[in-house]
Amino acid sequence: MDFGLVLQTDPPASAVVGLMRRAERNGFRYGWTFDSAVLWQEPFVIYSRILEHTSTLTVGPMVTNPGTRTWEVTASTFATLNDMYGNRTVCGIGRGDSAMRVAGRKPNTLARVGEAIDVIRDLAEGREALVDGRPIRIPWIRNGKLPVWMAAYGPKALALAGRKADGFILQLADPYLTEWMVAAVRRAAEEAGRDPSSITICVAAPAYVGDDLAHARDQCRWFGGMVGNHVADLVSRYGEHSDLVPEALTAYIKARQGYDYGHHGRAGNPSTDFVPDDIVDRFCLLGSPAAHIARLKALKALGVDQFAVYDMHDAKEATIDAYGSEIIPALNS
Fold this sequence. Notes:
The protein has helices at residues 13-25, 43-52, 71-85, 97-102, 110-124, 155-164, 175-191, 213-238, 247-250, 277-283, 289-301, 316-331, and strands at residues 2-7, 30-33, 58-61, 91-93, 129-131, 134-136, 148-151, 167-170, 200-209, 285-287, 306-310. The protein is built from twelve helices and eleven strands. The longest helix is centred in the C-terminal third of the chain and has 26 residues, at 213-238. It is 46% helix and 15% strand. The strands form two sheets. Strands 1, 2, 3, 4, 7, 8, 9, 10 and 11 form a nine-stranded parallel β-sheet that branches. α2 (43-52) packs parallel to α3, α3 runs parallel beside α5 and α6 (155-164) crosses α7. With 333 residues, it is of the alpha/beta class.
């Protein structure tokens, strides 16, 4: 199993670079960041520094979206980093929850996401693609490589990931939901004539190593609020009691009114008190190294190829080190 580190690009950027260097030393192979221009610093600028100060780490956004940058700019940015540092990027992409909403726009449609996946990959790898009906090719790209992984929750998004994406990003660590969603992605891939095993499965969630569970829950409760935004969209689209929406996803959504995007993705977010402890325990990895190892082995058995640690709490360094010394070796022994 591969491991990734996920950070928000809070200033100073040097701290983000330092944590990524620490992660690489501890056996992490991927370095991810959020991408929401109003809430955090511009990640692609910071990727250049991360790549310069690491030797093997693959970096990318978890996740970008098709609406905040034009597609040729996104492709050219990835291709430039790859040309400088040797094809060490991955493009995580989704509808654009916080990035679009904070700017007063609606998230992108799935049709737009699907088109963007093809265009950004083709352009970044040196092929011609249609952008707004016009054929474009970036002429200086040589031997470009850009895997595109899609974040998804709902049935239509999962199907799109299965049809088009090189990887699937699921931002929660509940084995029951992981099994259901991975099966949906693989089924769609097979129906599209693709090899389901060719799609990389990445589960991403907060991980907090420590014995004080109450404190760990409080540090990670924000994640239930963030995931709740996507769940609320599913409930709105398919109905609270639809067979297309697992009941486990809808249990805590009714109380989420008043969610504040100004505190999106932050420990101590005062607008996520509605998230109960059992949701935090299901969606996140908390507790001793042994508890993390047990959950990760369950996820690995479901076909998860990478676990990406959301390291956004008050024990960043300790969690990275615990993964490096105990958890990563146990999963890969």
